[in-house]
Amino acid sequence: MTDHAIFHRPLGANPPAGYDQAIFGMGCYWGVERLFWQQNGIWSTEVGFAGGEVQNPTYDQVKQGDTGHAEVVRVIYDSSLISYDHLLQLFWENHDPTQGDRQGNDEGSQYRSLIVTFTDMQTSAAEASKIDYDNRLAVQGFGKITTQIIEGGIPFWPAHEAHQQYLEKNPDGYCGLKGTGVEASMPNPDPI
Q1: Mean pLDDT by 10-residue block, N- to C-terminus, for the chain (192 residues)?
Q2: Number of domains forming the structure of the chain
Q3: Which one of the record's GO molecular function terms can you name (predicted)?
């Protein structure tokens, strides 16, 4: 099993006791992974695929657009240091969740906006934040949010090792991450 290029922990590890996990799809997963690994309280990140029909798909299969998967990042975090609400704020502010099957110039269902939740608390927080951010976007003239929220911790299929922590290994690599400029509601301060 390969280790994370920054945290030096095994990729694919289950969350340690007392830690939580989250999955977010925000377009091309390279920049999304870097966004999350830079946050205090993150234990590990891993890029991969979720929300589709094919088991253990390859990047090339997903890129063809017929597996139904989205490019996602699995985040393992210490909720005593960073809240799920804070992760949601980063999610909403760092991509455009109104674009359907695309992010900027990246087109296809693999680039859709997606949240996978693992607990009832995550589901209710994600749904509430979606309603709130949809209202904030509407005031600024944006269309409706197209973000899909999937409950129940559906399968996460890790991407090839070469794609893990890609922007750490390739600092000049592609990053299409770009928000709308509309702020999400501020979460309660993270626990200290």
Answers
A1: 91 94 97 97 98 93 92 97 97 97 93 97 97 97 97 91 96 92 84 66
A2: 1
A3: peptide-methionine (S)-S-oxide reductase activity
